[in-house]
Amino acid sequence: MDSYLAKVRKDFEGSPYWKFLGLEVKELREGHVELRLPYNASFGNVSELVHGGALASILDMSMGMLGRSLGYDKVMTLHMNIQFLKAVEKGDIYSEASMINEGRSTSLLQVKLYDEERNIVAHSTGTFRLTKNKEDKSAK
């Protein structure tokens, strides 16, 4: 699985949007993902807080990477529910993603965002379609 996880990491880190955001992998193992979003002043909204869209992006990317960590080749967000709990003015943001339920065609995933002081700033659940390439149905 280590070589597969290395491929997952490479795929995500090669994504133009990943690079644009400046995301970093803190920890990646099967069924567990932790990311870091370094603070960037360009994430600021009109209130000079980190824009909810930047937070939504790390939430979605965390759950997408989690789905891939489970051995799936394709991950598609079907639905996301986000609770923004605390504004972020400055500082890095951290995510921790985990599986709630794995079904045959869809899975329910969750992720929490934390600020530098480990205060929870957002929580999201997402329904994802997780699929394998047709030639690789035996893997998992």
- Write out the strand line-up for the largest beta sheet, numbering strands in chain order: 1-2-4-5-6-3
Structural class determined from secondary elements: alpha+beta
Q: What's the helix-strand series?
A: HHEEHEEEE
Overall radius of gyration: 15 Å
CATH hierarchy class name: Alpha Beta
pLDDT averaged over residues: 93
Q: What is the helical fraction, as a range of percent?
A: 25-40%
SS summary, helix count: 3
Report, as a whole number of angstroms, the end-to-end distance.
Answer: 9 Å
Q: The CATH topology is what?
A: Thiol Ester Dehydrase, Chain A
CATH superfamily: Hotdog Thioesterase
Uncertain parts: none
* Percent strand: 35-45%
By CATH, the architecture is named Roll
- Domain unit count: 1
Judging from the principal axes of the Cα atoms, what is the shape? Answer: globular
Query: How can the largest sheet be summarized?
Result: 6 strands, antiparallel
Task: Tell how many strands the DSSP assignment holds.
Answer: 6
Q: Could you describe the 3D structure shown?
A:
By secondary structure, the chain is an alpha+beta fold. The protein has one domain (2-136): Thiol Ester Dehydrase, Chain A (Roll), CATH 3.10.129.10. 26% of the residues lie in helices and 39% in strands. The chain contains 3 helices and 6 strands. The protein has helices spanning 2-13, 16-21, 52-69; strands spanning 24-29, 32-37, 74-84, 93-102, 106-114, 120-131. Strands 1-2-4-5-6-3 form a 6-stranded antiparallel β-sheet, covered by helices on one side. Strand 5 (106-114) and strand 6 (120-131) form a beta hairpin. The longest helix has 18 residues, at 52-69. The radius of gyration is 15 Å and the shape is globular. The mean pLDDT is 93.
